[in-house]
Design a protein that fits this description.
The structure holds 2 protein chains of 2 kinds. By secondary structure, chain A is mainly alpha-helical. Chain A contains 11 helices and 2 strands. A two-stranded antiparallel ribbon of chain A has the order 1-2. The radius of gyration of chain A is 20 Å and the shape is globular. In chain B, about 40% of the residues lie in helices and about 25% in strands. Chain B has 10 helices and 10 strands. In chain B, strands 6-7-8-3-9-10 form a 6-stranded mixed β-sheet, with helices on both faces. In chain B, strands 2-1-4-5 form a 4-stranded antiparallel β-sheet, with helices on one face. In chain B, helix 7 links the parallel strand 7 and strand 8. In chain B, helix 3 runs parallel beside helix 6. The chains are: A mainly alpha, B alpha/beta.
Chain lengths: ~300, ~250
Amino acid sequence: MIFHLLVLITIYAILSISLNLAVGVTGLFNLGHAAFFGIGAYTSALLNMAGVPFWLALLAGVCMASLIAFLIGLPTLRLVGDYLAVATMGLGEIARAVFKNWISVTRGPMGLPGIPHASLFGFAFDSFAKFLALSAACLGIVYILAETLIRSPFGRVLKGIREDEIAVQALGKNSFWFKMWSLVISAGIAGLAGSLFAHYMGFIDPSSFGMWLTFFILLIIMLGGLGNNLGAVVGAVIFVVVREGLRFVGLPPAIAAPLQQLLFGVLLIVMTIFAPRGLIPERKAVTRYKVNAEDRGPD
Amino acid sequence: MLKIEDLTKDFGGLRAVDHCSFEVPQNSIFGLIGPNGSGKTTIFNLITGFLKPDEGQVSFNGEVIVNLQPYQIIQRGIARTFQLVRIFRNMTVMENMLLAPKGQRGEKVSFALFNPPWARRQERENTKKALKLLTLFGLDRFRDEYAGNLGHAEQKLVELARALMTDPQLILLDEPTAGVDPSLIAKILSYIRKLRDEQGMTFLIVEHDMRVIMNLCERIVVLNYGRKIAEGTPEQVSNDPKVIDAYLGV
């Protein structure tokens, strides 16, 4: 059971880090993030069921999510703020409608059962503990990748776009392509999480990729601290523990589900009032190179 | 160096800029003045591509730049500041400075991930350059402070210093001394002269403070209702009856 919780935490943490790159760092208010998670899950599951090896199916899930993000980004990244939020929200719903109605491929609301276990070079991740090793390794890689990007000059431009896109353009940067990269990388990581999710659960259906998921992930990163990857992981831990913990209290399902949503709603309100920057706010980027007296120069 | 020909811009029924022409010579400090709403900031936005003109041309070093995107125009060697400061508030002063330089290798995703020595070296050079500029502007002690926590005058200086990080040939300053206390104004003006004299930069300045304009600029264009009503040296302009009527008052 504890392994199951930990696996869920790693998957949510990967998803949170991915959304954090777009929302927390770049300021792209993406409300359709669950779609990329779903695209990764369906692509990977369908390919693997058709006989494609797991690692290739996973890679295809990542690439497909990134590709769709690219196509979506072409028209929508010219929009700003609220307009981008509305456009991406619509796209999230479109993706869910496709999962639900493209019955010949996705089996629609009946879902895809019997997705094989993840396996690499003949080694099957067929128990909770084995799968945890795989998902934790993925989380580690994604975490390092995101951290490296955020601390680089590339990440600095993304933060600049969040703060003031016009000022970024006034410094000679083509902000459009920076936003595109941010969205494409963010979607690719979400696709990875989706692929892991599909092969872990063994069953997916369209209801797993609804709007509620995007809002929960948003809640996680706002709780943890926008712009901070460690915050995203901590937020994911709190989220999974609170949500799954409620199941042990023994409330009837008719009460448990609404209570859970109520609790998260209250949590979000409390956080925005008392800790608007989250539990672990964005880290300050202090000057990295040692400053020598002569570097200050004459005058 | 910068040539504006017959520039016109309408906002709905309002003609903000009306067939305006002037030329900013290289290595000069050029003033653009006029009452509120006379089209000064609109001209800045037209030059830097944030707005597209309805008629007319803007050329820079002989190249027509009017159809380029803002980032392309800036890359050709123009920098600007804004009337209302635009700094990255939740980033440190140093980050503000380091974001500015052109052609940073680490801005490519592949280099950002692997951070090769040549990208690191460039980052170090930029940091040194930023420190020199910050020291020059008396801002070095704020370098690891969030820019949004600075006072208004310091933010204006950060914006100017940041613009200099792009190595511009021409800088457009929109009211560089508005809201800045008088002792600092003198300092800013001396930096501007110094940059012109020692580094050959060219300045186009919008300003409301007549003393600043009269004492800094060699040549001035006066706008009223989007139309150019006078051009000349500070003496010529301040004695022009049309200018006195429209702007200097009584």
